[in-house]
Amino acid sequence: MKPPVFDYFAPNTLDEALSLLAEHGDEAKVLAGGQSLVPAMNFRLARPEILIDLGRLSELTGIERLDGGQNVRIGAMTRQRTVERHPLVRKHVPLVHETMPWVAHPQIRNRGTFGGSLAHADPAAELPAVLLALGGRCLAKSRDGERWIDAQDFYTGLFETALEPHELLAAVELPSVGPGEGWAFTEMSRRHGDFALCGVAARLKARDGVVEEASVALLSVGDGPTAAPSVVEILVGQAPSAELVSTAADAVVNDIDPPGDLHATPAYRRHLARTLTRRVLTAAVDRISG
Amino acid sequence: MDTMTREHPSSQQPEQGTSSRQIPITVTVNGQKRHGVVEPRLLLSDFLRHDLGLTGTHVGCEHGVCGACTVLMDGDSVRSCLVLAVQAHERELVTVEGLASGDTLHPLQQALRESHGLQCGFCTPGILMSMVPFLEENPNPTEEEIRIALSGNLCRCTGYQKIVEGVALAAEMMAEGSSPEDVGGAES
Amino acid sequence: METRYFGKPLKRNEDHRLLTGKALFVDDVTLPGMLHVAFKRSDFAHGRILEIDVQAALERPGVVAVYTAEDLGDYHQPGPLLLPAPPIEGAVFHPRMQVPLAKDKVRHVGEPIAVVVARSRYIAEDAAEEIFVDIEPLDAVVDLEGALDPDTPKIHDDLESNLAAHVVQSKGDFDSVVDKAHRVVRRRFFYDHGIAAAMENRGIVASWDARDQQLEIWDTTQAPIAIRNGLAGMLGLAESQVRVVAPFIGGGFGPKIMMFYPEEVLLPWISMRLGWPVKWIEDRAENFVATTHERAQIHEAALAVDENGKILGVEDTFIHDAGAYNPYGLTVPINSQCTLLGPYDVPNYRSEFTVVYTNKTLVTPYRGAGRQHGVFVMERLLDLAAKELGLDVVEIRRRNFLPPDAFPHDHGLIYQDFSSLVYDSGNYEPALDKAVKLIDFAGFESGSSEIEPHKRRGIGIVCYVEGTGIGPYEGAKVTVEPSGTVSVVTGVGTQGQGHFTSFAQVVGEQIGVDPTKIRVVTGDTRLFHWGAGTFASRGAVVAGNACHAAALDVRKKILKMAGELLEAPEEDLELVDGKAQVKGVPAKAIELGELASLANPMRGAVEPGTEPGLEATTYFGPKHGSTASGVHAMEVEVDLETYDVKILRYVVVHDCGTVINPLILEGQIQGGVAQGIGNAFYEQILYGDDGQLLNGSFMDYLLPTSMDVPNVVGDHVETPSPLNPLGIKGAGEAGAIPVGALFAQAVEHALRDEGLEILEIPLSPNRLFELLHDREGIASTEESGS
What we know:
Chain A contains twelve helices and 14 strands.
């Protein structure tokens, strides 16, 4: 279980990294935290010819508030553990803060990066679903310039994103939590820190006792993070109640076509999706009223 | 087919073209500056064990699940099988060999012995290197917190109970700055 | 017995080295000029090898040699058969053994085909990938029950079918009690036991020194002496030319005693061939396919009881999966067959098993070694009978225990050690009573605790026995050195069981030396080369008693010499603090080290009939195994929304006779329970129809973590074994054996309102969902899964 041979570049600046990507894009793989890529290389399942290590790019790290506090920007190379502990995240993007302990173990989060997990697009990963539920946007950079990709457009398939081979995920902007909002994340995994059999992230916003906005995203039930518009449709415009939550949660099966694998059949995953959606919505509603 | 036996490679010229270039790196391990010239693909776990001779760090799965290879990098616990040696360049590492000062064991080492928190001892270095920063961050943990913190390290011998007891005892010892005899309670 | 060290919860002597990273494991061995080995293994479960081309691999810079079966010449032989057919009338056994490198056919995924030797492991793996092997795939035999169908392909072409063995054992006459039974409970059971997954994978370093004509091997084996002797024979060397060291080993649990793994045969040969030291360290991916497993058995079993729940008889027919080869003999199924009887009085028993070859990794003993399967069948049958009779699960067990005066109890069956299945001693009811009390059955039944509406709680209790400490023998050499250091050397290897401490306690007790001052060496054939190995919970029993016997012999020598020197009768002497002294007169004393010097004089002669030094080598071999027993109980909580199960409380009351070190014993029990929980709810090796392993990583093969294993509350009953002077019974496997049966019972109890019968292990949340919903017909509208 030793990685195959590759060429290695460790650029010192973002410009240098983008030039390398422009030159090698198709054969190159970006090394962020390496917590998914290196094991895949050890199994020789991933065999990049060229590895571009972003570890020295301090330009891609950091957490700050933008737009008069409306958004929080997280640099793609910010370590997951830093995100987890950061006071700005805890206060303004509490859904991210709450989700982080579900991501593997501290030893992994100490190396794993926020952007790395998002760009890896593992359908069983927590952070892509959280991104989708929050509805943030992603900053893609290349030698030719930069562009923003909305969260709902970022994921395009199994381990696939809208990023072009020569593009790099540089940062993510996530909306800060506002008044009348509730949120929650939960998942079912076989063991603490494992990839989930099913997981749900939800965010609700209420005004005058009525759900004004809602977003729900699931993991491990499709090719990537999966939105649940049927659930949202039932919630919006209604006064939150246990009954409403239950009805909405049951509708989640209309939005998913989960795969079966060694640990969960599609039927069990659908069942879990309903249960966990109900739990998450209940917790989110409690937060609105609380 | 015939056996093909070539010269021992120590008598050969360095190979051309098969592996990528060798990269010089410098790391600080257990307070000492160490140098190496490594292939980029060399895992940090192999660099520590085989290039630097620090065989206390153990390799159990090489895919980041078992935790036996955990070391500290700039103070944080990391899986050394999921870090390339080149990524450790100019970083500060601590391995299990760096825990004791001289003949005096780290309180966590003492406490694990007191509580019989190890059997074959293969996973133990990784457990130590995960729990040392955990106790620094959370000096007074509950049993549940210890169990969560331990859950990224697999142990096949102990059933974890005595490790959990050992970590709790270490926390007590570190709080009191005392030895296990003073704290007592490890007799079971 | 008043003791100084024996029986005390002493901290372990070996821990300091392990805690500071200074203990030597096989992968820590580095030798000048050492080369590294990687294997090209079969990607197919079953197929004919048409061509192997190693040219590209050979040309890779850094590669020193590549070998295939052809290159081995006469050295290419099937491995030895460790255990022949058992002496059971009518037993059929068709053993087929693995070869070092596959020649014509591959029979399981991971079977080695070629071996690469290179400057580094990295390069060796690169080259192994470049070996081209053309294999004509054959249909894989995966399903146990289909293995003997006439149209199933044959795995071993020279056999008539995939039948590996067929054995019937019986006592009394089961058929005669069926008609007069009040009830006969008959069910089909599936029990799958997983893999050992020791944290350290296997590894071998071999070094042939042509000048010295010595072969040195470091091997992660549980049986270094047998490896030495076997290799010497294969390589045409004298046994004294081969040294096998089993240094610190990162967990054994059974599979590290499969003689001989192909890698064990090849590495020494390569070193002799090349004249350089070579190292192979198994990686985790290899471990899943190349280290032996335990796996499933399917049982059809019946229990006949009278109206009081007394057992009239048991009938069991089962099928056992050997994997592709069967060098270890029938240990696992015989253990299942014999252990099924448990602590119960079973007057009539008929047990028949069929062993089949499949295109999967070999099955050899893993902690419990088939005992789990038998215990599961018996305990589940008792639970089902109890339900039919309206008895509680504790009562039906109590009514069927062998009474304390029934020992020794001969079942009239042949056990895995080929001697009679005789229980040496036992006293089961006190353990049951203690367990009932500790788990608080009464408190549970009164249902006082608050639980969330979607959760259900259940409680369970099961009993088992374990045949432990089988022969043939072990030996030990105890030496008092002139420095006063005491050394103890024994042949068994150690994999974490605390031998460096417990053997020191046994010896220290007899010669009055603090165990921390006793240096124990295990598993180095240069220092001791008689013995069998560490397996079948026998280390403490057999090697422990050998240490005891050797210590007694040294004690005798000490007393004789000291008596002469101190001019006191031997019976007036005592051995304390490393001295022999006249009782109560510390002034009249002599240090043991000084005695050792005097016992090795530089002038004069050693008198006829005496030996120099304070040293003795002594052996111990029990007549047959001693039978440990125990009771486990647990309380579980099932989440009916996620189907997750949490173990709330766990109780073990165990009887392994005399205890050397209660701290180490607790560790053994707790660790065993953890593996049992893995077996019950987390771990299962899964194969596709094509014989591909589907979950060969720690991401998909789930070892329980610190969050999944509860604290174990333990207690003991001590019924010493009459078969050895120390009264010890083995304890290594006890924690693991009954957990599957218990988990099934407790979960079934939690789901009592659902009326579900659980007849299989392992379970999982997904499986519980399926079991509950299939039954309700829900699955007919949705996909059913794996």
